[in-house]
């Protein structure tokens, strides 16, 4: 007997999982991370002096980073404020406010100064930190260049 054109054929069930949508999602996430990663590197571009130093221990609170460019501009990074230009008076007021809000922890400040700065500019910045009551101050350096030993 001939099969009717209107009859249905039962196909076997395919129990394997379709992974194509998961691969599509993974590739979209990969592209997103590739695009956003260069945006995560922040910081004022300064030419740090090179020296071999020991790392200092940081507390539970992230340190405040103060960048001093060779032309005298001061930038401050703390909490959610990244590379905010600041004047000397506002710097002292902000640091006093951070000291008061630190809940008993001492505020740690890292100075990110250009190696071409005048000594007086760095000393003026450190005097301002002292006025604000900051007791923990560190200086950032770059990695030293490898020496050629023959």
List keywords for this structure.
alpha/beta, 150 residues, single chain, 3 helices, Nucleotidyltransferase, domain 5, 5-stranded mixed β-sheet, elongated
Plain-language structure description:
The protein has a five-stranded mixed β-sheet, with helices on one face. The model has no long low-confidence stretch (mean pLDDT 80). The protein contains three helices and five strands; from the N terminus they run H-E-E-E-H-E-H-E. The protein has a domain of 76 residues: Nucleotidyltransferase, domain 5 (2-Layer Sandwich), CATH 3.30.420.270. Helix 2 packs across helix 3. The radius of gyration is 28 Å and the shape is elongated. The relative contact order is 0.16. It is an alpha/beta fold and 150 residues long. The longest helix is centred in the N-terminal third of the chain and has 21 residues. It comes from Psychrobacter piechaudii. It is a single-pass membrane protein; Single-pass type II membrane protein. GO terms for molecular function: transmembrane transporter activity.
């Amino acid at each position: 007997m001939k099969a009717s054109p209107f009859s249905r054929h039962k196909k076997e069930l395919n129990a394997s999982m379709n992974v194509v949508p998961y691969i599509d999602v993974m590739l979209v996430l990969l592209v997103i991370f590739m695009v956003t990663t260069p945006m995560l590197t922040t910081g004022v571009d300064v030419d740090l002096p090179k020296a071999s130093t020991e790392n200092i221990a940081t507390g539970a609170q992230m340190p405040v980073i103060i960048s001093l460019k060779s032309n005298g501009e001061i930038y401050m990074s703390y909490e959610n404020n990244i590379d905010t230009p600041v004047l000397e008076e506002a710097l002292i007021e902000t640091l006093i406010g951070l000291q008061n809000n630190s809940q008993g922890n001492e505020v740690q400040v890292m100075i990110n100064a250009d190696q071409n700065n005048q000594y007086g500019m760095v000393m003026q910045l450190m005097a301002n930190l002292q006025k604000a009551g900051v007791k923990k101050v560190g200086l950032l350096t770059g990695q030293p260049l490898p020496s050629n030993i023959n």
